What does this fold into?
Amino acid sequence: MKVGITSRSALIVVDMQKDFCEGGSLPVSGCSSIISKVNEYVEAFKARGLLVVASRDWHPPNHVSFTTAGGPWPPHCVAGSEGAEFVEGLLLPEDVVVVSKATEPGMEAYSAFTSTPLHYVLSLRGVRRLFVTGVATDYCVKETALEALRLGYEVVVLTDAVAGVSGETSEKALEELVVNGALLATGEEVLR
Ligand code: VGL
Ligand code: ZN
It folds into this structure.
């Protein structure tokens, strides 16, 4: 089965942070409801001794993407703030690799590969297939998955464990990902 978890697979949990979930400053609807599914995937990768990566949006207080600096988003995920913490109930393994992104004031970065050691970490562990979960489908999940495809990884987007800012652009994002070679799958196909 082409979407199976192989010995050269890793899981990435994209930006499952308080500010992106219900009650946060930039809530993505559906964020809270995917937490238990993300946990199931984390457990499956952990049980197989496979790498789990968690990315986090980690902005300086004056980040260019904030409305306060002329950008499109309300201030969110300020490094070290409560809103930037991983959402309550998310069960990450002790040896999770945390990747912080968009840490420079003047640079937006939706992809977890941009200016981070993610590609290096995955290469070092021999990872070939990347399973993608988290938020937002239409921004950071999309750009992270597209970059992974460009870098030559096999990419499986776990559609029952992602949530987007808008339904319409999330659907478009998934279509674009498929056009670029990503596979879409759910727990019924992947977890068994
Ligand atoms: C994100 C908007 C702004 C994301 C990050 O994680 O998808 N979206 N910053
Ligand atoms: Zn951001």
Summary: The chain is about 25% helix and 20% strand. The chain has one domain: 9-190. The chain has a mean pLDDT of 98. The two ends are 12 Å apart (CA to CA).
